[in-house]
Design a protein that fits this description.
Elements: E1 4-5, E2 23-25, E3 27-31, E4 34-37, E5 42-43, E6 55-59, E7 65-70, E8 75-79, E9 84-87, E10 104-108, E11 111-115, E12 123-126, E13 134-135, E14 142-149, E15 152-160, E16 164-172, H1 187-192, E17 195-198, E18 205-210, E19 217-221, E20 225-232, E21 236-243, E22 255-257, E23 260-265, E24 268-272, E25 277-279, H2 286-292, E26 302-306, E27 311-316, E28 328-333, E29 338-343, E30 348-353, H3 359-365, E31 386-391, E32 397-399, E33 407-410, E34 414-429, E35 434-441, E36 449-455, E37 462-477, E38 486-495
Antiparallel strand pairs: 1-38, 2-33, 3-4, 5-32, 6-7, 7-8, 8-9, 10-11, 11-12, 12-13, 14-15, 15-16, 16-17, 18-19, 19-20, 20-21, 22-23, 23-24, 24-25, 26-27, 27-28, 28-29, 30-31, 31-32, 33-37, 34-37, 34-38, 35-36, 35-37
Length: about 500
C-alpha cells in the first residue's frame, strides 16, 4: 500500500470513509502534513493561595514586563526575581470577585486598568510608578468587559449607581484619557467625546476588541457582533451590527490575533475579520467539542494564542470535570487550517510575556536544576517574549515546555471490498519510542477490534499477521520522547485469498 498520511483530525465525520485522523491526542497541528509534540505544563512560579480568576502579561513603554493576576479578593503582580505573586491590591482583601466573573486587564499607554465585574470599582496601576492598585479616578462605571478602541477606553456590561446593571451597554472615556468619565449628556462629556450606547441587538456584551480588520474595533455580544468606526463629534462612533444572530456565550473564548479574532459561538468555532465571520470547525470538530464540553461552565472556556506557531488554544472542562476545572484543550493552527486536542488538567490559559529570571529565582521554582522542567537554554528566560501560559490546578504559573506528552494518532480506515493481510505497519515519526496498534473489522456495522499495540522492531516496523477487510493504524509515541514530526504510516500488506 502507499503511505497513509495521518490527515487532518476530523472527529465529527463518520469513522467509515473518514478521510482524516479520527484521533489526534496530545499533539499540535504543526504543518499541512504533520503533527508535532505537545510539552507538558512546566511550572515557573510558586503556588498562589487561591484560584486565579484572570491574568495578563503587559509591557511598559520602556520594555519592562508586568504579569498581573487576581483572585476573588486580591490583585497580584508576578515578581520575576523570586517567582512569587506579590499582593498589589489597594488594600489587602479589598475586592469581591464572583466565582463566575474574571479580572480583565487593559493597557492604555503605561496605565493598566483592571475590572472584575459589578462588585468593585475599576482599578488602575501605572507601570513604572505604582506600588499598589487604586480606584480609577474620574467616575465611570463598573464593568465585566474592557478594551481599548482607538484613543478611548471602553467598558461593557456595565453597572452604575443611576441605572444599575445594563448588560448590553458600552461606555467610553474621554478621548486620550481613561481617567476622565464626565456625566453623560453634559457639556463636559460632549467636549471629551465621552458617551454610552445600549446596543439594541445581541444581549450581554461579552468582549471588546480593537483594530479588527479595517475597523477601529468590534463588540461581541451573546448573539450579535457590532463593528465600530470613529467618526468624531457629535456621534463620535458609528456602530453597525455585522452579525445579527451569532456571538458568544463564552467571553473568555474570544482571542484577538492581530487584525482578526477567534471565538466560540453556540454552533461552533469561528474567525472574525472585522466584517464577516467564517466557520472553522464545521463538519470537523464542532460536534465533538460540544459533546465533550461540560455546558454548565461556559465561563471556563479559556482561549489564548501561540502567535509564533500560529496556534490558538481553548482550554475547557469536559463532562468528566464535575467541578468545572478545565481538563481538555482543543487547538487550531490557523496557518494550515488543522485541529488537534489534548488532555491537560489546568486552571486557565492566557497569553503572557516571558520574564528574565535570576538563578536565585529559579531556586524557588524547583528544588534543583535536575527537576526544573524548563531548559535553561529556553528563550523563555530571556524575558519579553510572547508566551502561551497557563495556571496549573495547583495555582502555579506554567508554560508548555515540560517533557513531551504521550501522543496518540490514528489514521483513516483503509481497505475493502476484498480482504487484506497486514504483515506490518511502519510509522513515519522522526524520533521517540513508538508502539503501533492495528484496528480491524470486516463490516462497517461492527466496532473495530484493537490488536496490539506492538513495539516497532529494528527494521522500523511493528509486525502483525491479521486478515480483515478494513484496517486502521493507531500510533502511540511515549511520553518524554524526543521527536518533531508525525506524518503517517506504511502498511506491509497483500490481498488475501479469503473472501
Amino acid at each position: 500500500m502507499p503511505v497513509t498520511p495521518f490527515g487532518q483530525w476530523l472527529p465529527d465525520q463518520a469513522e467509515f470513509m473518514n478521510p482524516g485522523a479520527t484521533v489526534a491526542k496530545n499533539v499540535v497541528p504543526k504543518t499541512s502534513t504533520s503533527y508535532g509534540p505537545l510539552g507538558a505544563l512546566a511550572p515557573t512560579s510558586v503556588a498562589m493561595t487561591n484560584r486565579p480568576q484572570g491574568a495578563a502579561g503587559l509591557r511598559a513603554s520602556d520594555g519592562t514586563v508586568f504579569t498581573f493576576t487576581g483572585d476573588a479578593s486580591n490583585l497580584f503582580l508576578f515578581g520575576s526575581d523570586d517567582t512569587t505573586f506579590d499582593v498589589v491590591s489597594k488594600s489587602a482583601g479589598a475586592y469581591t470577585t464572583a466565582s463566575v466573573d474574571h479580572w480583565r486587564f487593559a493597557r492604555f499607554g503605561d496605565r493598566v486598568i483592571a475590572i472584575n465585574g459589578h462588585a468593585d470599582h475599576p482599578q488602575t496601576w501605572v507601570m513604572g510608578t505604582s506600588t499598589a492598585f487604586a480606584d480609577l479616578a474620574g467616575g465611570g462605571p463598573r464593568a465585566r468587559q474592557i478594551g481599548v478602541i482607538g484613543d478611548f477606553l471602553f467598558m461593557g456590561d456595565t453597572w452604575d449607581s443611576t441605572d444599575g446593571s445594563v448588560p448590553n451597554r458600552i461606555w467610553w472615556s474621554k478621548i486620550n484619557d481613561p481617567t476622565v468619565w464626565p456625566t453623560i449628556g453634559s457639556t463636559a462629556a460632549a467636549d471629551a467625546q465621552s458617551d454610552l450606547q445600549d446596543l439594541p441587538l445581541g444581549g450581554q456584551v461579552q468582549a471588546i476588541l480593537g483594530a479588527i480588520g479595517g475597523t477601529d474595533g468590534a463588540i461581541i455580544s451573546d448573539t450579535a457582533i457590532h463593528r465600530i468606526h470613529y467618526v468624531g463629534p457629535p456621534s463620535v462612533f458609528s456602530i453597525d451590527a455585522v452579525e445579527h444572530a451569532r456571538g458568544t456565550i463564552a467571553p473568555q473564548s474570544v482571542v484577538n490575533v492581530g487584525s482578526f479574532a477567534f471565538y466560540l459561538s453556540e454552533d461552533g468555532f469561528y474567525s472574525f475579520n472585522g466584517a464577516t465571520s467564517q466557520q472553522i470547525g464545521d463538519d470537523r470538530v464542532d460536534a465533538w467539542f460540544y459533546s465533550e464540553l461540560n455546558a454548565g461552565y461556559p465561563e471556563k472556556v479559556y482561549g489564548a494564542a501561540d502567535t509564533v506557531n500560529k496556534v490558538v488554544y481553548w482550554g475547557f472542562p469536559s463532562t468528566n470535570s464535575s467541578d468545572g476545572t478545565p481538563d481538555r484543550i482543543i487547538m487550531y493552527n490557523w496557518g494550515v487550517d488543522r485541529w488537534s486536542y489534548a488532555e491537560v488538567d489546568h486552571e486557565m490559559l492566557f497569553r503572557d510575556l516571558s520574564h528574565a529570571y535570576t538563578m536565585e529565582g529559579l531556586d524557588a521554582v524547583a528544588a534543583s536544576m535536575d527537576v526544573l522542567q524548563v531548559s535553561l537554554d529556553s528563550d523563555y528566560f530571556k524575558g519579553g517574549l510572547q508566551s502561551l501560559s497557563a495556571f496549573t490546578t495547583a495555582n502555579r504559573l506554567a508554560i508548555f515546555t515540560g517533557d513531551n506528552m504521550e501522543a496518540t494518532i490514528e489514521t483513516m480506515e483503509v481497505g475493502g471490498p476484498g480482504m487484506t493481510l497486514v504483515n506490518g505497519i511502519r510509522p513515519y515519526v522522526d524520533g521517540g519510542t513508538i508502539t503501533v496498534g492495528l484496528k480491524t473489522r470486516d463490516i462497517p456495522t461492527v466496532s473495530e477490534v484493537l490488536i496490539g499495540p506492538n513495539a516497532v522492531d529494528f527494521d522500523g516496523m511493528a509486525h502483525f499477521v491479521k486478515t480483515a477487510r478494513y484496517h486502521r493504524a493507531q500510533v502511540v509515541i511515549a511520553s518524554a520522547s524526543s521527536w518533531e514530526h508525525a506524518q503517517g504510516v506504511d502498511y506491509d500488506s497483500q490481498q488475501s485469498s479469503i473472501i
